[in-house]
Design goal:
- Chain B: Its main location: nucleus.
- The complex is a heterodimer of chains A (175) and B (503).
- Chain A is mostly helical and 175 residues long.
- Helix content of chain A is 27%, strand content 0%.
- The longest helix of chain B has 40 residues, at 462-501.
- Chain B folds into 5 domains: 3-77, Orthogonal Bundle (Arc Repressor Mutant, subunit A), CATH 1.10.10.10; 84-165 and 179-200 and 232-237, Winged helix-like DNA-binding domain superfamily/Winged helix DNA-binding domain (Arc Repressor Mutant, subunit A, Orthogonal Bundle); 240-305, no CATH class; 310-395, Orthogonal Bundle (Arc Repressor Mutant, subunit A), CATH 1.10.10.10; 400-499, no CATH class.
- Chain B has helices spanning 3-17, 19-31, 36-43, 47-59, 79-83, 88-113, 118-132, 141-153, 239-263, 274-286, 307-327, 329-341, 346-353, 357-369, 397-425, 427-445, 450-457, 462-501; strands at 34-35, 63-67, 73-77, 116-117, 157-159, 234-237, 292-295, 302-305, 343-345, 374-379, 389-394.
- Helix content of chain B is 59%, strand content 9%.
- Chain B contains 18 helices and 11 strands.
- Chain B is mainly alpha-helical and 503 residues long.
- The chains are: A mainly alpha (175), B mainly alpha (503).
- Chains A and B meet through helix 1 and helix 2 of A and helix 1, helix 2, helix 4, helix 6 and helix 11 of B.
Chain lengths: 175, 503
Amino acid sequence: MASRGGGRGRGRGQLTFNMEAVGIGKGDALPPPTLQPSPLFPPLEFRPVPLPSGEEGEYVLALKQELRGAMRQLPYFIRPAVPKRGTTILIPKRPPKNTEDKEETIQKLETLEKKEEEVTSEEDEEKEEEEEKEEEEEEEYDEEHEEETDYIMSYFDNGEDFGGDSDDNMDEAIY
Amino acid sequence: MTQAEIKLCSLLLQEHFGEIVEKIGVHLIRTGSQPLRAIAHDTGTSLDQVKKALCVLIQHNLVIYQVHKRGVVEYEAQCSRVLRMLRYPRYIYTAKTLYSDTGELIVEELLLNGKMTMSAVVKKVADRLTETMEDGKTMDYAEVSNTFVRLADTHFVQRCPWVPATENSDPGPPPPAPILVISEKDMYLVPKLSLIGKGKRRRSSDEDAAGEPKAKRPKHSTDNKEPIPDDGIYWQANLDRFHQHFRDQAIVSAVANRMDQIFRSLPVGYNISKQVLDQYLTLLADDPLEFVGKSGDSGGGMYVINLHKALGSLATATLESVVQERFGSRCARIFRLVLQKKHLEQKQVEDFAMIPAKEAKDMLYKMLSGNFISLQEIPKTPDHAPSRTFYLYTVNILSAARMLLHRCYKSIANLIERRQFETKENKRLLEKSQRVEAIIASMQATGAEEAQLQEIEEMITAPERQQLETLKRNVNKLDASEIQVDETIFLLESYIESTMKRQ
């Protein structure tokens, strides 16, 4: 409702419509000016209605969670190919030809490396199709690129994993 | 597509199909129709990955393809179809209520796999049902087939577009992509199959976790290499049919509630006399809800169900409910008043609602800035002078419904993100708990003592257990909220669609 230009210029303070018509009487206190964007979590005036409970609600909820888990196991869930750490480069087994161009050798190495990656990622997917639910699955993710952050995952390490996760022998106390 | 819808699609695709499919899917939703190489180039993804992603998306009816001039094949994503993934649990549950467990699993398999042959569905479902049965009992293929046929007859499942049988009259080169057809009359035609067999249990010896699985069993082929009798005949769930059912359900329950309000004292039995039925119908027809209309008097009058009005009433009720829960019951009273009277001046609102001016103003502005109510100018004089213009408050149901729908998409996106955040925060603890469960399960299988099991269980401390409990409770709440919001989305979308059709 504020006039354009902050009231500078001619006809300052004039509005294009009649204030009284929308219920602002003359001399009424206007609400305080807005100096910042509204809070991210504005205070809740009224408690939300409770969610429907009951057999149907429970069943549909369980269904939803089951479906989510099931879809992750199906072959339609495509995980990004893991570039293996320390990729072994297959060196062609033949006496190095001095006549061969450096460029050609590099190209050959690259194609072989790509082929190996393709094969391993294909193998990975086949394995995933057959394996039952296993936690090791999580390791197929490239840890470096697991989340949508710019930092590699080791940045977030806080020493928790230090000392190894040894579940085998729990007799000893862990300090 | 609005940003909110795209965001929600992105979350759904990523959660169900992974990042790569998400990247390709969202790109197509944003840019529209594109050929293969353009997708690869624009997203910086290898051709191989793009192909895999497109396969998954097409398989699940989320992307379609078209052959354009000069043989270029373009792929197009269906954003609204992606959003339907939110409703999968509801479709499956509905199938359960109508066709019991067999129907439930058939629809579930079709939704999980996108498209399947009938023989594959029957076999899979028979296997799954057999797993749940007592030792020695199996599910017969015939029984599953019967349920499948019933689902097809009632149109809950339908044929996917198929490759037409060519007469080889045109011996030219094959088109770059098969051109698929559908025909109304064949869409629910079940092939004549004689599927004979029983469901098989998974033999427990196959599941020695340590060693390799007995044979690398690819998921799609049958155990014995028989030719698939209905190869090429694929089925999918018919979501529109489910929507029809939901809509009918919503209307019926709304009317039932209404009837309850009016006739709580009257006994309602199946042998209603003609006169009483007449009275009911008249009351329904006169009811301001306008669900039932009377068209003509011949033969005692014909009653029709006015679908559009019914959907409008449901949408309006939704809006009222939201205003009530967000702004309080006095605001809701004003809202209903403006709805009823269509246009009201500031003064009139104060008088009719019997709410003091200052409060009424405050409430009206709250609803105005929330876009539930709008202001309409009616000039008294041709010069539109402000002092001689009416300013009327009114509710534009269509635009308020659109606004609310948009908010629903945002809400669900927030719910999903929060749920993922909660899960990620507790990732370590969750993994530990899963490991412990796996250890306990394997120990139980090899017959361990109670004391040993106890020891393992104690690996999870009491505060950790508490944390897991809280996490479970929160995740359940967030999931249940998603389901709830999707119900609202369905109502609003149905109303908006019905309104747009009439324009």
